[in-house]
Specification:
Layout (H helix, E strand, L loop, with lengths): L2 E4 L9 H11 L3 E7 L11 H8 L5 E7 L7 H6 L4 E5 L6 H10 L3 E6 L17 E5 L16 H13 L4 E5 L7 H6 L4 E4 L9 H14 L2
Parallel strand pairs: 1-8, 2-3, 3-4, 4-5, 5-6, 6-7, 7-8
Helix pairs in contact: 1-7
The protein binds D-xylitol-5-phosphate (DX5) and zinc ion.
D-xylitol-5-phosphate binds next to strand 2 and strand 8.
Length: 220
């Protein structure tokens, strides 16, 4: 099934619990949680304690996107805080395999992420070990940027490899997705769509999530 993963980064943190409730009510399956350290990306967002406090209010799959250097150092904290999927950037570590093994040893799903200028070949050795591949369609660090359509070409490559090798990862797209390009994104064959400003930043969050889910469902 195709899924929507609204990004918490665009939420009003003063009323986070209420806003998360709206997207869950709309039927979003995943909650995308962007953790930034100010080193791997030039921005700082929030850490594990913030989403830990949401865990008891939500049954959504917590899809944690780590934009931090050497993520292995904090994997345990992120899992303990309630992550269901831990995505890390291949560019952020010297030991992608060790990081994947650590995530999986804690009983959650591992995801590997690539920035716009990173080719699929950089993660090919790890594709048999992950449950999710996150393809960035903007430079990580900020919400509200414009989608780089050329990044969508990586999706067909990832689908081909999955098919050829019998792998079973989901393919997720993150950055600049909105009502104007959701169909183009779905046509690429993606499984999970992240949307920050287009959903959590909308005037009517529940409606924005429902509208986007209605399009996503057409591609099931
Ligand atoms: C960017 C983050 C994205 C961001 C998406 O570094 O990884 O998840 O929240 O926001 P939009 O959908 O507004 O581009
Ligand atoms: Zn993200």
């Amino acid at each position: 099934m195709k899924k929507l993963s609204p990004s918490m980064l665009a939420a009003d943190f003063g009323i986070l619990k209420e806003q998360i409730g709206l997207i869950e009510k709309a039927g979003a399956e995943y909650l995308h949680i962007d953790v930034m350290d100010g080193i791997f990306v030039p921005n700082i967002s929030f850490g594990a304690p913030v989403y830990k406090s949401l865990r008891k209010y939500s049954n959504m799959i917590f899809d944690v996107h780590l934009m931090i250097t050497e993520p292995i150092r904090y994997v345990e904290d992120f899992v303990k805080a309630g992550a269901d999927i831990v995505n890390f950037h291949v560019e952020a570590t010297d030991d992608p395999k060790g990081t994947i093994d650590k995530i999986k040893s804690l009983g959650v799903r591992a995801g590997i992420t690539i920035k716009p200028n990173t080719n699929v070949s950089a993660i090919e050795p790890y594709l048999g070990d992950v449950s999710l591949v996150l393809v960035m369609t903007v430079e990580p660090g900020f919400g509200g940027q414009k989608l780089m359509p050329e990044c969508l070409d990586k999706i067909s490559e990832l689908k081909r490899i999955r098919e050829e090798k019998g792998y079973d990862y989901e393919i997720e797209v993150d950055g600049g997705v909105g009502s104007g390009n959701i169909r183009q994104v779905m046509e690429s064959g993606v499984d999970v769509v992240v949307a920050g400003s287009a959903v959590m930043g909308a005037e009517d969050i529940e409606k924005a999530a429902k509208d986007m889910l209605a399009v996503i469902r057409e591609y099931d």
